[in-house]
Each structure stands twice: as C-alpha cells, then as structure tokens.
C-alpha cells in the first residue's frame, strides 16, 4: 500500500496542529494516520487511493454509512443553503425534540448542545443544581468526554485528575467505582450518600473494550439512586439510537434513568449533543430554571436536519435489523475464529457494536467456569459470549501491544479499518453489506 500522500499531509499537519490532529485518538495509528479523501457506503478511501472497509464509522455517528440516503442529503442541503444558522429558534429543533420525546422512554424534554462532552458537562451541572449536592459517581474506565468532572482516575478512596490542567478539587467531587460492582456502589452511598448528586454511567461501557452490564446491575443503580435522592444518568452518547434501536439502550434494559445524554447518531454525522430527561428536572436549565446553559450553535438547523432525517429513515426502513444482523454475523464469525486460532482472546459486543479484546481473564470468567468450562462454546445451553469482561480492569489487563501489531499492522494492510486502540468499539452501519463482513472475517483469520 502506498501512503506518500498521507505521510506528506501528516508532515504538514504536525507543523500546525498539536500531534498533527484535532482529537487525540486519531494520532494513535503508527507511524502516522491515513488521511481520508472520502467515504463510500461502508468503506473509506484514503489520500493515496487505498480503500478500507470502515468499522470506525466516524467513531459512532454514522448509523447509515458514508452515503446518506437522498432524504437525509436533501434535508441537510436545504438547511445549509437557506443560511446555516440564526441565533433564534427554528421549527426543525422542535421536530427533532418531538421525535426523541416520542421514542425514548425517559425523555420528556430535551436540550440540544454541540458535543457529547457538552452534554455530559451540562448534565452534571444540572444534577448538581437540581439536588444541591456536589459529588458524582462514575465508572472506572467509563468515558464522558473531555470534561473536568469526569477525567478522574483511581477509586472512591484515592483519586486524581487523569489529565494535566485539572485542579485536584474536581477529583474530590468525583467518585469512581468499578462497573458491575454493587458492593462498591453501596459503599460509596453509605459514606457519601447525602452529598451524591448523580450516578453517571454508560449503559454499556463502550470506551473500554465493550463491557456489558450484568443482569440486574442497572436496576440496582436505579434503586439506590432513588433511595438516596440522587439522579441516575445514562450516558447514551454511543448507545443512543444504536443499541435497542430508537428506544436506545434504556429500552433494551428496561431501566428509566432520570437524565440521558446523547451525541453522535442524534446529529446524523454533524456536531451534536443533547440532555434529555424528566421535564421537572430539565426545566431547571436556564431560562426556565437557574442552571446556566447556553450555546451559539446549539440546535443548529443543519445538524437538526441531519439528525431528524437519519432517525426518520431508521424508523421507516430496515436499518436496525440490517446493522444488528451484520453485527451478529461478525461476532459469531469472530467467536469461531478466536476459538480456533486465539483461544485467549474474547469477542464482545451487542447489536451493531463489536470488538475483539486480548484477554480472557477476569471475574466474568471465574464466575461462569463451573457451569461453562472451556470449550463450552459448543454447548448450546451456554451463553455464547460467556467470558465477557466484567469491568474496565479486566479489559485493561489485555495486551495492548498486540493491538498495535495485529490491527494497525495486519488488518490495516489488508484494507480493514478498525478502531485506533484496544478500548474504543467498532460499529456496523447501514452502508455495510454481507461481503464486508466476509472480507473482514477473512482478514481476521489471516491476522490472528
Ligand atoms: N460520552 C461517551 C459515552 C462517549 O463515548 C463520548 C465520545 N466518544 C463522549 C461522551 C464525548 O462525546 P464528544 O466526543 O462528542 O464530545
């Protein structure tokens, strides 16, 4: 594969942009990332004309793939050509808000913003303003964007900001606990319950491998937050309008949080975020309430059109059946390949999310060993993904160097674009077809 153009572009980028990129993860491909020229259904073509099957899909927003259906294109183009934005309301904001309220169980009212980060930042401020409390509980290995209150590492007893430039005071108010650990959650509530404003969690950890909730975990969090008068916030920036279809992950799990944050798909590929929830809580945002929230670009007509047309297209076509079916084919095919060629790895994911991680360690495995001994894949009574990691620690234990070799080296060389590191997940779009799955499985076979 020639990559002269990408290399030259990266050289230019390095002289004018920190690390040569506008978002950290993009620089992770070594020795340099490929620069994309354009998309084509489920593929991208780079600046040197190389074609890749694309399972990154913009890191999640592109539910429909790179070629947008005509209705979506027309909606975007019309709004852009009429003058992109105004600083005063437009009808399409109301249309998209009504669509979301109709489909997502917990959302009675919604405020649109411009990124997932802005959504979680505003949700945390809202929870603090609403409850009059300071502390938030987050999951270790969870990700809620580049915001001060959630860039915290450690545990509830010993924690610190995970980035330079964040005062320690932020970490004092953030309590990280392991995902799927009811005892740890109970302990932080016993110690800090009176000052906990919210528990903020992704329904499925999508930024640390893919970690699935154990049965009853979200119900437990729902109950304990209610008991202590804290808010339960689902960060559905990744899972929203992907897992569980138009009802989002909360409908799949049958749990109704107080607030939900959105991003990615809800803007149809344009910059977006949103905070939805119970009307009585959302009404605390200014100007209705006293929790300040504002943004020049919020509810941008082009974004609203892209989001609304995308979701309407998904409502009227077989989008979720298609992406979930290909997702299952990928996970199933990968499970067989891993069993044959790399039995120490694990296939994770659900709906249109998938990932291979380089470990089979962790309590998820220990707990199931009795019922599902190694090789139980062949046992039809055994859950297919029996060795799912239970929390971020399990995934972190994996061999990250191997990711670099196998996936940036061999998979990319075979024309398959996978997520840039071991932790981010991979996405199926409506633009992908069965041949993409088959070619990808062949490439995995070769690489593993
Ligand atoms: N929350 C979650 C769960 C995310 O995955 C992300 C980004 N991947 C964010 C928040 C931040 O969103 P953005 O990058 O749009 O700021």
From TrEMBL:
Query: Which GO biological process entries does UniProt record here?
Result: protoporphyrinogen IX biosynthetic process
Please indicate if the UniProt record lists Transferase as a keyword. yes
InterPro entries xref list: 4pyrrol_synth_GluAld_NH2Trfase, Aminotrans_3, PyrdxlP-dep_Trfase, PyrdxlP-dep_Trfase_major, PyrdxlP-dep_Trfase_small
Q: What is its EC number?
A: 5.4.3.8
Q: What are the N6-(pyridoxal phosphate)lysine sites (modified residues) in this protein?
A: 264
GO MF entries: glutamate-1-semialdehyde 2,1-aminomutase activity; pyridoxal phosphate binding; transaminase activity
Subcellular locations according to the entry: Cytoplasm
Q: Which cofactor does it need?
A: pyridoxal 5'-phosphate
Q: Name one Pfam family in it.
A: Aminotran_3
- GO CC terms: cytoplasm
What are the coiled-coil residue ranges? none
Tell me what reaction this enzyme catalyses: (S)-4-amino-5-oxopentanoate = 5-aminolevulinate
Q: List UniProt keywords, sorted A-Z.
A: Aminotransferase, Cytoplasm, Isomerase, Porphyrin biosynthesis, Pyridoxal phosphate, Transferase
* Metabolic or biological pathway, per its Swiss-Prot or TrEMBL entry: Porphyrin-containing compound metabolism; protoporphyrin-IX biosynthesis; 5-aminolevulinate from L-glutamyl-tRNA(Glu): step 2/2
Domain of life where this protein originates:
Archaea
Q: What class of enzyme is it?
A: isomerase
Identify the HAMAP family for this entry: HemL_aminotrans_3
Q: Which family does it belong to?
A: Belongs to the class-III pyridoxal-phosphate-dependent aminotransferase family. HemL subfamily.
NCBIfam families per the record? PRK00062.1
Q: What is this protein called?
A: Glutamate-1-semialdehyde 2,1-aminomutase
């Amino acid at each position: 594969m020639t990559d002269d153009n990408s290399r030259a572009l990266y050289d230019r980028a390095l002289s004018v942009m920190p690390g040569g990129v506008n978002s950290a993860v993009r620089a992770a491909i070594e020795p340099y990332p490929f620069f994309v020229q354009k998309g084509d259904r489920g593929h991208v073509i780079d600046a040197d004309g190389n074609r890749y099957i694309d399972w990154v899909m913009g890191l999640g927003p592109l539910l429909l793939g790179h070629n947008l259906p005509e209705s979506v294109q027309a909606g975007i183009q019309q709004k852009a050509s009429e003058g992109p934005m105004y600083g005063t309301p437009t009808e399409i904001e109301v249309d998209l808000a009504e669509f979301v309220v109709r489909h997502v169980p917990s959302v009675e009212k919604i405020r649109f913003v411009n990124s997932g980060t802005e959504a979680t930042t505003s949700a945390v401020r809202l929870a603090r303003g609403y409850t009059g409390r300071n502390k938030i509980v987050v999951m270790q290995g969870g990700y809620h964007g580049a915001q001060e209150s959630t860039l915290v590492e450690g545990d509830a007893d010993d924690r610190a900001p995970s980035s330079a430039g964040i005062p320690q005071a932020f970490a004092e108010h953030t309590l990280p606990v392991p995902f799927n650990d009811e005892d740890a959650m109970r302990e932080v509530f016993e110690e800090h319950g009176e000052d906990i404003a919210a528990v903020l969690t992704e329904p499925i950890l999508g930024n640390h491998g893919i970690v699935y909730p154990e049965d009853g975990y979200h119900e437990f969090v729902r109950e304990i937050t209610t008991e202590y008068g804290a808010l339960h916030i689902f960060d559905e920036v990744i899972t929203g309008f992907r897992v569980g279809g138009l009802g989002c992950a909360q409908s799949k799990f049958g749990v109704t949080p107080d607030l939900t944050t959105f991003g990615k798909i809800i803007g149809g590929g344009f910059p977006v975020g949103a905070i939805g929830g119970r009307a009585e809580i959302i009404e605390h945002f200014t100007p209705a309430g006293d929790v300040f929230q504002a943004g020049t670009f919020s509810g941008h007509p082009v974004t609203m059109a892209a989001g609304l047309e995308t979701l309407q297209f998904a409502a009227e076509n077989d989008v979720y059946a298609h992406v979930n079916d290909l997702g299952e084919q990928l996970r199933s095919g990968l499970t067989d390949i891993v069993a044959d060629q790399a039995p120490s790895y694990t296939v994770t994911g659900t709906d249109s999310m998938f990932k291979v991680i380089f470990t089979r360690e962790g309590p998820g495995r220990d707990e199931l060993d009795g019922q599902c001994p190694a090789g139980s894949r062949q046992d039809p009574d055994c859950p297919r993904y029996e060795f799912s990691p239970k929390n971020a620690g399990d995934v972190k234990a994996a061999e990250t160097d191997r990711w670099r070799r196998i996936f940036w080296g061999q998979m990319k060389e075979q024309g398959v674009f996978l997520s840039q590191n071991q932790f981010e997940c991979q996405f199926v779009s409506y633009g992908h077809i069965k041949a993409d799955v088959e070619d990808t499985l062949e490439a995995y076979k070769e690489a593993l």
